[in-house]
Amino acid sequence: MSLRFASMVCLAAVAVATAPALTHADDAELALNSPDQFNWSLFVKVNAPAPDGKNRLWETWADNPTTFPSRPSRTDKPKFPTQAPQRALEAVSQQILRAALIGRNRLRISPDGSEEVRRNQASFDFIVNNNLYFREGIVDAVKAQKPLSFPPESIELKAVWKPMDGLAPAQRARYYVNKTPDGREFGLVGLHIMTKAVPNWTWATFEQADNVARCDIIGCRDHFGTEKADVKPNDMPNKGYPECKHTAALDKMFTDAGLREGFWAFYCLKGSQIDFADQSAWGTRLANSITEDGFVDTSSCMSCHSRSALNTSAKSKFSGGFNPDGTGPLGYPDPGTFFATKPPFKFTDPRPPYQFLPMDFVWSFTKARSAVQ
Prior knowledge:
Oligomer: single chain
Number of strands: 13
Number of helices: 10
């Protein structure tokens, strides 16, 4: 099931062409040493008003349908939008994939909205220029046995929305809202952001403050933007949490960027992730309470996305990164994910051929279809 917004007003092509890069190689130090500050600065930049005056910058970027057409052509390649694409919201993908593994009667399907994936031009151009937007191009890449590596300016994000139907005006004012032509409103409830500022990407998830399970199970952690840096999970789920009161430093960041709307005060950084594990090799976790509802306790953005690897049939070994029992992977990747050779591995030997080529943490390649010409 999908929900479609009307197309937005055209962007000026020159504005898109001259839009400044949002991440640079020199961001790596901040991303590694102060990841929460880095991720808030990124949140502020991608939510800058777009040139069309109707959207935020990220809403004008290419979505999955634009990047991976249903009938791709080898000669007529996808083009980065010069106007905001028609928005197509889909059911939360992890919930659907997990349902197929464990059965719907055991799955808690979140009712809170639908999702979309967007990517900036650096990420889009890498996919298109390397013929990775159609299945045969991906197969060629697998046969070439060279793992993908997106440019450091690349940004991928996933947004989650929920209908504002019946919400009192005072509550509605706490959300960034988009309208359909018939006047129906949808509020932003979650935003995953990943960037290639470091080789294994940076990872962050933001939530709207009123998400009742926001800090359930794994808590919330923000050592830059929130006065209470660590919030422990409630003893009982779905009981809600106090607002994440922003620090003066974050308020200044919003003000300096010209983001003065009151609803930004109700967005919280759930957490950041920059490595698979801590210094004791204990797996780190990061999860959004809506997109990962039902498996927050075994959710690691990095560990899951590291399983994005495809074979010469452009197929994955894992459904959405899940284990067969519907749990998510934690900790460092298993080399057995990628190679035909069976463990144990001798890392002093030459690396064996890939059976499943690493796709640089990007799951959207599974959306690619066969070329029609």
